[in-house]
Amino acid sequence: MFTIHGWSFDKSVWRNTEFEKFHHFELPGHGESPFKETDLEKLAFEMGEVVSGGTVVGWSIGATVALLLAFYFPAKIERLVLFSPTPSFCKVSQNPIVCKNFLRKLRRDYERTVKWFRKECRFDGDVPLPEKEKAITLLESFMKLDISDILPKINVPVSIYVGQKDKITTLQGAFQVFRYLPKATLKVYPGKEHYIFGGI
């Protein structure tokens, strides 16, 4: 059983959740990650080499990687648990102009922009900043990727959870993933935002 956290965070987001004792994968440049690939599809293959099977839990960008793992390694993945997924961050969840402006701000003032983003997620914990270049390259890959076409081909059971007030990947993103997946359930948490874990 494995978890994959969201962008700019690390494995500490799973603390005090039912997934705390899972094996935690950290994104390249985040935490103590051993992974090198910052292209999400290549990263899924890199992670897939060490996934031994069972349930994969993903949040936000981590949900996208989890879906790619289920698509590329169907024999290894039995179930997905997805928090705040989207099939295409900059087509479904956000306007492309918003994405471009965010990347511009990251390059100009990285620390301040990451901290602003975490507040927008409604996260108030203390997580070390990820490595700048890897984090930005990873986010660029997320922003370019559209996995809509592969979702109908994922045949494992998928549980989807989303905050009703999620401004990052949005309700629309979660609904679109739910609509395309053949074996999915969806639960919306009233009043919750992108950082959905506290109190659920």
TrEMBL record:
- The answer to whether keyword Transmembrane helix applies is yes
Domain AB hydrolase-1 as annotated: residue spans? 4-197
Keyword terms, alphabetized: Membrane, Transmembrane, Transmembrane helix
**Where, by residue number, does the polypeptide cross the bilayer?**
50-73
Q: Which SUPFAM superfamilies match?
A: alpha/beta-Hydrolases (SSF53474)
What is the name of this protein? Pimeloyl-[acyl-carrier protein] methyl ester esterase
* Species of origin: Desulfurobacterium atlanticum
